[in-house]
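Comment thread on ticket #2218

A.B. wrote:
> Attaching the input chain for the structure job we discussed in standup.
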Amino acid sequence: MKYLTLLISLFTLLLLLVSCGQTAVSPTPETAVVSQAETAVPQPTATEDPATATPLPAPVMATAVPTDTPSGPTPTPTSVWINPTPTVDPSIPVAPPPPEGSVVQPPYAASDCSDKYPCNEDVAAWEARIQVPPGFKVTYFARVDGQPTTMAFGPDELLYVAVQAGTIYRLNKDGVPGAYVGGYTTPTGIAFHPITGELYVASRAVEENINGESVISIVNKGRIIEGLPCCYTFYHAANGIAFGPDGYGYVGVGGRADHGEILGTNEQDELHPYEAAILRFNDDGSEIEVYARGIRNPYDIAWDGNGDLWATDNAPDFGPPEELHRLVPGAEHGYPWYDCEVCFQPPPGVEVLPPDYTFVAHASPTGITAYTSGVFPGYYNTMFVTLWSAFPGAQSVVAVTPNGDQYDFSLGYAAPVDIIVGPDGNLYVADWATGIIFQISYIGE
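C.D. wrote:
> Ran it. Output below, let me know if you need it in another format.
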């Protein structure tokens, strides 16, 4: 009996030990799906990650592995997401300019936040303020924390917005932003690779007027191109990125001076081989060449439906008209050959191409997009340009049609900095001063 009692006691103790072990160990979780946002971080720089109200993703770094042979782009790239071919009715003529007086700059009106503009969160007031032609509608789509600089739609058909402080946000379908990646220094160009879906970023590495440096990175891989000219003045750097129909990447790089001078003098400087130019590069950055020269500050670039590359251009400070160029490969488009008392003349045999279109002086043309959707009838292949500055005649979205018409398409912004066509065929406009992203949609006459 004594032995039986002892045996029962040992058995009871064993049950207690097994029970304690089961509650002390957490159940084995299912395999976690790690999102791109959780792994996407740029190559670290000397500057700290900027503070943001939204927590940034955890810093996990994957370093790009160098290869012995350059990996050039696929000759016939296949997109990782489907961009539907627009159905354009050839019988629809190019849309004419809006009726005179239908798109006018609204008068400034004071609010609790500003002597000129509505409060940033006042949805109704901003939607009433932004002017568009008859048949179009403006919607306050989203607002991000900071000053937007550039936008891109991803293969997930979501909108990605970079802000000056260094964070790139991803907006969900309802326009709610979440931090996607952070830590860049003034990112001003983002673009998704059409084959791999990787996000390319143009930003600064050395924020100095003289001997500054711009770089191009791939999110979660780090820098692939370094040593690009930077940073004569605000936003003169490696800026807009676009992938061409040939599969190569293209980036606009600003000049290191106002009109080619050695800063602080009137002496002509020797041009950096990559300044004031549009560069073409393969997807790992191992091959770079100049596509076109003479663009003083090409803040943004865009391919149209004909396979032509366009660039906005900020003209010199002495006040000539701002410019829009349809780029000609290998051509000289202006910088540093300007007509002013202290400017320099081109050497013999150098032909300088004039701009295709101009805007008022100091308007600061920034973002550009080609409308290659079929949703806006009559607007196929129209170029839309944002004029960023607060000078009279700017703070607008300008349309340049295939017929050569040029007119204000939308007015009322504080500082529109970028514009893009969404997968839904709508236009999206980022306002640098307010952080607001506006959506322009067609609703019919």
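A.B. wrote:
> Thanks. Noting for the ticket: Helices lie at 2-24, 36-39, 123-129.
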